[in-house]
Amino acid sequence: MMKIMPVDQFKPEEFKTPPIQAGNEIEAIVDEIIANVRKNGDRALKEYAAKFDKAELDAVLVSEEEIAEAFAACDAEFIEILKQARDNIENFHKRQVRSSFIVSEEDGRVMGQRVIPLKRVGLYVPGGTAAYPSSVLMNAVPPKIAGVKEIVIATPPGKDGKVNPAILCAAKIAGVTKIVKAGGAQAIAALAYGTESVPNVDKIVGPGNVFVATAKRRVYGIVDIDMIAGPSEILVLADGKSNPAFVAADLLSQAEHDKLASAILVTDSAELAEQVQAEVEKQLKLLPRQEIARASIDNNGKIIVVHNLEQGIDIANLIAPEHLEICVDEPFAYLPRIESAGSVFLGRNVPEALGDYWAGPNHTLPTSGTARFSSPLSVDDFVKKSQFLYYSTDALKAAKDSIVSFARREGLNGHANSVAIRFGESAV
Domain check: are 177 and 121 in the same one? Predict the structure, then answer.
């Protein structure tokens, strides 16, 4: 049952879901897997598919025939839903595209910045107890808009050696170029270092279990990564006029993700707190993933009763949740005060699921309080920036004395001399 507490008992450190951490034993296993994939390539991936997924693979990559079979297996209505969701995501993310710029001055100075897409990115898509085609769309559409030419997905196969049809359909619709039948640390190793069939990428994004998270940590520096995601989180800020059934349903929508997920209600109404507590218990019994949601609610579900919603916003900013719902009549009045949240859902009819599947903003969000300093996945994650500058002889001459003086103050006379020597002078 969700615990109800007065605001006086609130301690921010108790409301942070920790990022995935591995012990020495898991780190050793991951290191061995990475080394094996680096040495043996496709053969290692096939061996791990047999060991962990109970799948015998003839080929590591998904074939065009398998993709065609997936489209035949998925109903036409779902295909259209995937396409519309992709369009919504594209419509939002295309507004994030940054332009290169150039600054040209009349005195002979030219400077600028180039925005360059990464050449190749890898997307990890979990398997296990559920398939998430929504994550395929959210992770694949932004790099496509950024101009990335090659988008490679890695996802574990089923026991039949095939990838979930919904994943394949979403991948094709989103513009993915290659799909690798691999999960776990072995998939991350293949994306980072490459194999005979899998090209090495510049960046790896996407969530996963402790083995995936540990492998991403290990290969960071060889490739870039998005984040080390923690369990899912939701914080609902609601006033006394909120519908307790709606609030409870929204809390459970995240609790069913993971036993470690966090569902928090912050309200200025003691009456609503009790109603939501009861409603959560009622609805929880109806969920197919009841066991998972029950563990999440019992261990991490909390209701904080505040004196007013202004105080509630302060608490929300301290927790910095992945998802923040503001269930009031005039939510836009509160938005300017929100400093730290992955994604904000405004109003009484904006459940978190709207963002997960449909609206367009990305659902890959900072967790574990990292919304204090990090951002949702975006087009920016799939580009790099390079700057350039040009000075004419006269422009460099005008700056010469200042540069020489600056360099000497730092004790770097070689720097100073590289400017002075161009004018027949010496700074050493």
Answer: yes
Q: Is residue 364 part of a domain?
A: no
Q: Identify the three-state secondary structure at position 387.
A: strand
Q: Are 268 and 309 in contact (CB under 8 A)?
A: yes
Residues 175 and 247 in one domain: no
Burial environment of residue 295 by CB neighbours within 10 A (0 to 12, 13 to 18, 19 or more): middle
Model pLDDT, residue 35: 97
Tell me, yes or no, whether 206 and 243 share the same domain: no
Give me the pLDDT at residue 8, please. 87
Tokens of 292: 């998972």
Give me the pLDDT at residue 127, please.
79
Give 131's pLDDT tier (boundaries 50, 70, 90): confident
Confidence band of 9 (pLDDT split at 50, 70, 90):
confident
Residues in Cβ contact with 323 at an 8 Å cutoff, skipping those fewer than 6 apart: 232, 233, 234, 235, 254, 341, 342, 343, 345, 352, 355, 365
Residue of 256, 323, 325, 352 marked active site: 323
Q: What is the mean pLDDT of the chain?
A: 94
Q: What is the rounded distance in angstroms from the CA atom of residue 348 to the CA atom of residue 344?
A: 12
Q: Which of 233, 256, 279, 322 is the catalytic position?
A: 322
What percentage of the chain exceeds 70 in pLDDT?
A: 97
Name the residue range of residue 276's domain. 3-17+230-350
Residues 170 and 270 both lie in one domain: no
322 is catalytic: yes
Report CA torsion sign: 331, 332, 334, 335.
positive
Annotated active-site residue 363? The verdict is no
Residue appearing with tokens 């006029």: 241
For residue 18, the model assigns a pLDDT of 65
